[in-house]
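Q: What structure does this chain adopt?
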Amino acid sequence: MTEAVSNQSTAATLQREIPGANNLVVLEFDYYAYGGSGADGIAVVLSDAAITPQPGSFGGSLGYAQRSNGDAGFAGGWLGIGIDEFGNFSSPTEGRQGGPGRVTNSVSIRGSGSGITGYRYLAGTGTLSPGIDATGANSPHRYRITVDSRVAGQAIVSVERNVGSGFNELIAPFNALSATGQAAVPDNFLFSLTGSTGGSTNIHELDELQLCALRLNPVGAQVDHFEIDHDGVALTCQPETVTIRACADADCNELFTDPVAATLAPEDGWVSGNIVNITGGVGSATLQNTVAGQVTLNIIGSQPSTRPQSQTLCRIGNGPLAPGNCTLNFVDSGLAFELPDLISHRPSGPIQIRAVRRDDQSQACVPAFENVSKTVQFWSTYVSPDEAGRSASRMVEIDEIAIGNNAASPTNLELNFGAGGIAEIDIVYPDAGQMQLNALYSGSEATEDAGLLMPGADSFVSVPAGFCVSAVSSCSQGDETCPLFRKAGEPFDLTITAAGWQSDADVDFCAGNPVTPNFELPGIPLQAELVAPAGGETGIVSPGSYDHARAVDAETTVALDQSEVGVFRFLTSPAPGAYLGRDLPQGRSAPVGRFYPDRFRVTVDPGVFEAACGVGQFTYSGQPFGWLMTPTAMLEPLSVQGARTRNYTSDGFRRLSVAGVSTLAPTEDAAATDINGDPIVFSVTQEAAELTVQEPGLMLFSFSLNDQFQYLKSPVTRIEPFLPELVFAILSVQDADGVEAEAAPYNFEPEASFEIRYGRLVMDNVFGPETVEALFMPFRIESFEGGRFVTHDADSCTTWTTTDIDSAEIHHALLADSGVFEKGAAGPLRLEPVGTQGTDLLIWDVPDWLKDDWGNDGALTDPSATATFGVYRGNDRIIYWREVPVN
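A:
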């Protein structure tokens, strides 16, 4: 906790909040004390969590109680249990209140306090045996401290010790709330340990610490520390405003931007009370003090809490930040002025400077002099940014005169103080930042007021008039006719310039405006505003914020990308109060674009062929067939990062037409070959495809349902049945802007769960007497299987009609008929004789898929058969004919 150095006090705080009311807190730890020169000890502290923990005084105060040298006690201290080797924690000396006097090797308890008051002695032990320091380095004593607030109006405190044979009571349970001056139990406790040395030192160690409580809450994000800026001088006759920053890190490079309620010191005098609400990391508070002298400013606590043992740092003007700069000097007379916040380069308009003094009776400000001209010294100081690292050091101008920028080189200006002691000035600051304007009137013998010093100071913040937000090119028409700019998601440079004022009517801050080189602000949000297409998506801008850095040209260039297609404006949108607690205007670019996709993602559904005969799931060679489900391709325009660009399919921004999708159909089967080993030829008749928008950013390319296909039939295709293997392709996708598919070509094979069969229609010859009632001619459909033709019993779908039969019908009359083949068979045909003898030839005009090479001459022809009426003389080549019975 401390070094082996005299007169130190330190503290460490557990990062947990302990609810104060209706709770039971039990703390146990092993304690060692040995070596050294025999002093002092430690204190176990419960303090108000609303107050930032700070240790009390050194020596016998054990880092908890106050001291007569002006040291305050533990900040927010409610209870301090001292394990005291030297014994002065129980002594009413050195500014401590109450106690029996020095008790060596004892445990004592002191109560609540604030500053240098309170911390009264509540209870304690006599000299303990064995003593506090009897542990050596290896035999600790174990302590148990209990605080029980489960009963309303009570806080029962006790202390026990175990030196090896079980716990013994050191301080019997007592109600701390019954003690005189003891504060009520706070909403939440913080638990701290303090260490202290005086004129002597010793080794004090803790181990095996256990804190048990019915309720124990985590501590959330904490403010690292607070900083206060003030002028250093204020008037007793008017309120003085100071600026407060809540810092997220030790150097305040980042502000604590969550809402904070900070508790101010002194407790009284603040115009709106001593609790100030800080938003965005910066706030202000106003103090009224009617007595000349010094007031010390401080932040004593906050919600969310402040890092324990942190110190409030203060700055006077543009001086250094330090705890010792928190003193604000109030004087009875001076130059009073309140500076408005300015817009860079824009004249402030009349600002009143009043020469005032405090009226002894009313305490109000009254004129110190009036209707007289006085020479007043003016100078400015840089507050934020300070003098270090400035891009430029521009001067504040008063009535068009540049004034000095430090106290060593002030500028004398003659001011006419009229009625009421009021003079007027006009201020211009041609930059951004926080400045302090200082004024001093020094009396002289010539003016008969020698020795009179009337200081005055106030700070102001100057903000940019606007922001010039620009890309390398813009498109004033802001619609689909804009030329190509960047792919969606492709980085481009966006330049943001912090601009000064040029005119109150100014709306374009990119047209000749002066700049503000010292403007800097981290984390300015960047947004996109959709210009076109109407009703489209705004998309995502990346990065979502940027850090504006100081620069001579006030420019910061950001590598930005926009995820969507279209035309956009790009905006800087600082949060309210983001810049030194002040609002900034929004920056807005001219329309930028056209943004377009990087590529198309293509997802193919191969589709399904439909068999010509759906019942038997087959198609004859040469027979046309089509789609059961057409192949489709889902086309998705993508950004560089691979996200869908939904705006692409909006009217005017979709540059892909159906003609931009190039397809290829097969001309042969990928596997089947004819009897010569050549691929089976495949014929395609395609109708116009279709391209439709399915939803924003998603298009569907569809083959036509009217497409027709067939395997060309010839004598050499008389092969075994086979399953189709047909490979189609989407060769390319390219829109009018040159955006292409990401991985073309896309080959796909439609599903075909049916066979291609070589088939034919067969008719049988018939004969009989011309006197019979009718001859019946059989016919059927055959399929080539197993090296021969067999009746195609899978065919129950092919239709037939006698109207397709060509015959002279000399010796017969064909009975008209029609039907559907059933398992490859049908009919027979009914031929009714007309009474004459002879032979008629019947030829059936069938489609190609039912023809065959009947003449073995390499040509497909229609099937035919003969019908003979009368005596059948047989064939001249047959010498003998007899019937052989089947077994």
